[in-house]
């Protein structure tokens, strides 16, 4: 497990902690073509085991582009393929709006708080 691992890419931060059997991954800043490859690699490691339960905390994410959307879809697909669960915590209305415009809200479990996401599973 990657507990307490931190990844710094292009001024962005990814932190991960374990709450029960769930991995809460905290993302900040902009999820764009410059930093999603490193974050995607990180999520690949978390979703490769049996029954990965991932909560992606995106409350501090201020921007998301097509590569960020692709990263989210990939991580969710991998978690489900391994009989796990993948949920997202979002605060920024522009990020929520982008997910709605891309018609992805029906595929993701979205929450307003990490506590709500963790309590769901």
Key words describing this protein structure:
121 residues, alpha/beta, six-stranded mixed sheet, globular, disordered N terminus
Description of the molecule:
With 121 residues, the chain is α/β, with parallel strands linked by helices. Helix content is 36%, strand content 36%. The chain has helices at 36-46, 66-81, 93-101, 114-120; strands at 6-9, 12-19, 22-31, 53-64, 85-90, 109-111. A six-stranded mixed beta sheet has the order 1-2-3-4-5-6, with helices on both faces. Helix 1 (36-46) runs parallel beside helix 2. The two termini are 19 Å apart. 32% of the residues are buried.
Give a short overview.
The protein has 121 residues and is α/β, with parallel strands linked by helices. The chain is built from four helices and six strands.
Question: What order do the helices and strands come in, and which of them pair?
Answer:
Elements lengths: L5 E4 L2 E8 L2 E10 L4 H11 L6 E12 L1 H16 L3 E6 L2 H9 L7 E3 L2 H7 L1
Helix pairs in contact: 1-2
Task: Give the H and E element order.
Answer: EEEHEHEHEH
| Helix share, percent | 25-40%
Note the total helix count: 4
Please state the CA-atom Rg, rounded to the nearest Å. Answer: 13 Å
Number of strands: 6
Shape: globular
Low-confidence stretches: 1-5
Largest sheet: spatial strand order: 1-2-3-4-5-6
Oligomer classification: single chain
Strand content: 35-45%
Q: What structural category characterises the helix and strand content?
A: alpha/beta
Average pLDDT confidence is 87
């Amino acid at each position: 497990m990657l507990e307490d691992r931190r990844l710094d890419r292009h001024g962005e931060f990814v932190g991960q902690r374990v709450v029960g059997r769930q991995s809460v991954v905290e993302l900040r800043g902009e999820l764009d073509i410059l930093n999603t490859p490193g974050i995607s690699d990180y999520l690949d490691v978390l979703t490769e085991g049996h029954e990965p339960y991932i909560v992606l905390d995106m409350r501090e994410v201020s921007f998301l582009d097509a590569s960020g959307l692709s990263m989210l879809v990939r991580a969710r697909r991998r978690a489900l393929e391994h009989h796990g669960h993948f949920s997202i915590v979002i605060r920024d209305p522009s990020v929520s709006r982008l997910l709605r415009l891309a018609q992805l809200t029906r595929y993701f479990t979205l929450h307003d708080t990490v506590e709500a996401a963790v309590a769901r599973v």
